[in-house]
Design a protein that fits this description.
Low-confidence stretches: none
Helix content: 25-40%
Shape: globular
Largest sheet: 8 strands, mixed
Distance between the termini: 47 Å
Structural class: alpha/beta
Number of strands: 21
Strand order of the largest sheet: 5-6-4-7-8-9-10-11
Strand content: 15-25%
Bound molecules: zinc ion
Length: about 475
């Protein structure tokens, strides 16, 4: 219950956080961390982790039986308590194929029914809200509970166990939160979360000028777990490569965007540790985690995955299709047959040598994007800029077109004709936030467009960098 209060206060607290001196930021970060620690390392979480580890020895029949039972429970809960599903037929699910009689939800449907997708059984004070921007420009509001957070964290700890790392091993995190004010031009570019033994490093201050500060800091804290967005770790690895540095870490965990093979090799070489990648999403309806043998395992306790072709039929072996998820864990906002917009295929190259029988999946790398580089040398990864879109609800696509070294245009497509006025307002907010982030050395403009700019293969990058070739 506390987490829902803390979470809803975060946007207001950010303004205060940005104005206080660095030592106070460490204190505030640690206070926030203390709350999360109560959830992440509670006895319940550790018990769930124990159960998950026991489930790793399940054979395929046991996995199928578990999934069938979870599908039944999820459907029953959804039809009984969620207005959106109230007219779904109450029919018995005898086999996973029976699910195919139900409609597929696309992102647009979920966006248009956000409130009707919430379970009326979970009281408001237990709901924790978050937003996700996914691959498009529109933020989707999602909700979950503390109970969900415990379960979700147990899955993360399970992957740590695959890497031979115990819970609470000290870690360094390079993800979305703004831990240092955007206009700061000198260290520290980090904040300490003491209760969790975590250091949060800013992803908004990376540049050639700050590179040695970052690398020296990492060197000083080597041997920890390093976790972050692949593009951000790749930028750090490039800095280290230019200086011929190696910074040994205990393990590296990536998530949040595609990990390209070339980035993986570079990150593993620089940080002298195996990379464990994860495919997940803020809608929390599915999870695919890489094991110590380098294969991507579906987490069968987390959600049910269908991979369907564009006609809605299951794909054949080795064939690419759309991910359609039915989540088991989030009872506030159950998503049934949710087509998230990502693609992939079943990995049919035989059982994984790790011995786990959970299905193997190969997510397709679709989100290709450039890096944005300011005239003062600062580098921004796609995920850093993606954070700016979290308040946008009327944009179908939003892209950052970096056409001159000192200029970037925010270019967005409204979700619909009716929403173009709201889109025009939101795009100005995104422009202002980007201008504040990039500073005076960069001119930021904004305009609405009819269609996004696509590259070969139909990929729609978040950042189009035509000005600087790295
Ligand atoms: Zn494996």
């Amino acid at each position: 219950m506390l987490e829902s209060l803390v979470r809803s206060a975060l946007p207001r607290v950010q303004g205060i956080y940005d104005r206080v001196p660095s030592p106070a930021r460490h204190v505030l970060t640690s206070v926030r961390g203390w709350f999360l620690t109560q959830i992440r390392y509670s006895p319940e979480t550790i018990e769930i982790l124990r159960q998950l580890r026991a489930g790793e020895s399940w054979r395929p029949a046991r996995i199928s039986a578990y999934q069938l039972d979870a599908l039944r429970r999820t459907l029953d809960h959804a039809i009984r308590t969620v207005p959106f599903y109230s007219n779904y037929p109450r029919r018995e699910i005898d086999a996973p194929e029976d699910l195919r009689k139900l409609p597929v939800l696309d992102r647009e449907t979920v966006l248009n029914n956000q409130d009707r997708l919430l379970s009326q059984e979970i009281p408001l004070h237990r709901r924790i809200g978050a937003t996700t921007t996914g691959t498009t420009g529109t933020a989707l509001r999602v909700a979950y509970t503390e109970t969900f957070l415990r379960k979700n964290w147990a899955f993360l700890l399970r992957q740590w166990a695959w890497a031979g790392i115990p819970p609470r091993h000290p870690r360094i995190t390079l993800q979305g939160p703004r831990v240092v004010p955007a206009d700061r031009r000198e260290p520290p570019y980090w904040a300490f979360n003491v209760p969790e033994r975590q250091i949060l490093l800013s992803i908004f201050h990376l540049s050639e000028k700050t590179a040695s500060v970052y690398l020296d800091f990492l060197q000083k804290h080597s041997g920890r777990v390093l976790e972050g967005f692949p593009s951000v770790l790749s930028i750090l690895a490039d800095f280290a490569l230019e200086r011929d540095m190696r910074i040994p870490m205990r393990g590296v965990f990536t998530s949040g965007e595609p990990l390209y093979p070339s980035s993986r090799a570079k990150i593993e070489e620089i940080f002298q540790a195996q990379v464990f990648d994860t495919y997940g999403m803020t809608e929390y309806c599915g999870l695919i985690q890489e094991c110590e043998r380098g294969r991507m395992h579906l987490a069968p306790e987390y959600g049910f995955l269908e991979i369907l072709d564009d006609g809605g039929e299951p794909v054949g072996p080795g064939e690419d299709g759309n991910f359609v998820w039915t989540g088991f864990l989030n009872d506030v906002m159950p998503l049934i047959r949710y087509r998230i917009g990502d693609r992939g295929r079943w990995d049919d190259s035989g059982e994984c040598p790790c011995g786990r029988a959970s299905p193997l999946v190969v997510p397709t790398i679709t989100r290709e994007s450039d890096i944005l580089q300011c005239p003062d040398g600062r580098l921004f990864s796609p995920r850093a800029l993606n954070q700016l879109l979290k308040q946008s609800h009327s944009l179908r696509f939003c892209q950052f077109e970096h056409d001159r070294p000192d200029r970037v245009a925010v270019r967005a497509v409204p979700r619909s004709e009716q929403m173009s006025r709201q889109a025009a307002e939101e795009i100005m907010d995104v422009r202002a936030a980007l201008q504040a982030l990039l500073g005076k050395s960069m001119q930021v403009t904004a305009h609405l467009a009819r269609a996004p700019i696509a590259r070969s293969g139909g990929k729609i990058p978040l950042i189009l960098n035509e000005a600087v070739q790295r």
